[in-house]
Amino acid sequence: MQYDVVVIGSGxxxxxxxxxxxxxxxxxxIIEKYNVxxxxxxxxxxxxxxxxxxxxxxxxxxxxAFADHGIELDNLKVNLQQMIKRKGEVVKSNNDGITYxxxxxxxDTYYGLGSFVNKNTIKIxxxxxxxxQIETKNTIIATxxxxxxxxxxPIDKKRVITSTEALELxxxxxxxxxxxxxxxxxxxxxxxxxLGAKVQVIEYMDAIIPxxxxxxxxxxxxxxxxxxxxxxxxxxxxxxxxxxxxxVKVTAQNxxxxxxxxxxxxxxxxxxxxxxxxxxGLENAGVQMGERGMIAVNDHLETNVPGIYxxxxxxxxxxxxxxxxxxxxLVAEQIVGQKPHINYNLIPGVVYTWPExxxxxxxxxxxxxxxxxxxxGSFPFKASGRAKASGDxxxxxxxxxxxxxxxxxGVHMIGPRIADLIAExxxxxxxxxxxxxxxxxxxxxxxxxxxxxxxxLAATENRAxxx
Length: 467
Ligand code: FAD
Ligand code: NAD
Known about the structure:
Domain FAD/NAD(P)-binding: 3-328
CATH architecture of the largest domain: 3-Layer(bba) Sandwich
GO molecular function: dihydrolipoyl dehydrogenase (NADH) activity; flavin adenine dinucleotide binding
Keywords: Disulfide bond, FAD, Flavoprotein, NAD, Nucleotide-binding, Oxidoreductase, Redox-active center
Helix content: 25-40%
Bound molecules: flavin-adenine dinucleotide, nicotinamide-adenine-dinucleotide
CATH topology of the largest domain: FAD/NAD(P)-binding domain
Enzyme class: oxidoreductase
Number of domains: 3
Cofactor: FAD
Strand content: 25-35%
């Protein structure tokens, strides 16, 4: 078979790239190593973790918030097996959705490991070892990432686990030790803390979610301690672990240089992810690697070999599904000669804990480092009528704007449903709105979104109405 484009990998980068290629009239194929489409995000990432976050949040609210709303329940209990089964059904229904989209867009799907024979020939090796070759003018590598592990802490997939196993546990841990206070550790730690586990987070840095605006991690830490009993051990360097029966002992060096020991029945290792290129045969096509195992690409996401592109987790930048999707669209449009653009500074980051956390644009720390003159306006959810009605008063919205021009430079939020509210900040910033522009727009009352308007008012000559 001869194709205009072959996409290797069917995660959010790959399958979206394939659809956009097909929309643009290119004869397209997609190759996936596993026998289901959707990649990390759909099968062991974004979607299953959010399904468990939603289920566990329902339980936690039923156990801790319903009574306050005047709803009384007897014999409330967790059925973890059903939660995991439901999660599987959510994933399956999305798998089917992507299969349907491939058919609808007349994209040929191949299941098996894709590897380069040369620049224009791709070999597909299926699970039984059967091989076939296809020819292509362009290739988009979208092979994603795998969990990073620590050399002294082998993953046994039973007691010492990564996010993949944490989505399939057969029991609620009694004491879950989470190594790494980043997105995965806090999201999956929240799932099991809500279901009754004691969660201890060991973090190497002096802050959780350290790449986001520091005010967010500080508030999230306060709330997770208060509502879910999380314990945090910051600036701790994990040095080893031993497993005996059902118990894992983790040793770490505390900030004073002393050795401390943690004991749990499960250890979740969530210290980041690394690009995945194994078995791709990049050398056969002459594709050069970049730093830290990434494929090197230029601003157009093209590798050193013309016609071979790479997108998503396998290249530089945030490891986020929506970043991968934008890159898939960009490459497809470039192949047909269009001039698309991605504003990487306006790709939002979201943590789906409760309260949710989200940020876009520059953090306050980055603005300070740049020496940029800025002003800041904040609005706390405890002053929001809507948040009081729902009982979700933790958190705030913080808006950072240029001191002279009032242009919004960064928006950082922690609070109820702000995973969706951050889209307003992205829209405003894409249109280069000033804080006053947003402050003058009508926001329905009572909504959580009013906190965005109020924070913009606060940044505009300190004019917030409700604080
Ligand atoms: P992937 O989704 O990793 O897909 C790559 C695909 O390529 C895989 O299916 C793989 O099997 C296939 N492949 C690899 N090599 C070959 C080969 N040689 N031949 C054929 N196929 C191959 N991001 C968010 O934005 N929001 C979230 O809420 C979120 N939650 C997450 C939760 C967890 C627990 C995890 C682990 C990640 C989460 N992420 C989230 C990150 C997100 O999953 C990734 O950023 C995203 O999946 C990257 O997409 P991708 O297309 O680059 O690669
Ligand atoms: P992360 O980079 O978010 O967090 C890793 C954390 O581990 C960091 O805080 C880091 O300082 C810490 N760390 C590193 N080495 C350590 C060590 N030896 N001991 C203790 N702490 C250590 O990585 P993650 O949580 O594993 O997630 C991986 C990727 O998946 C991220 O890039 C993230 O973007 C993506 N993801 C996104 C979402 C989302 O968008 N909601 C959810 C889950 C995962």
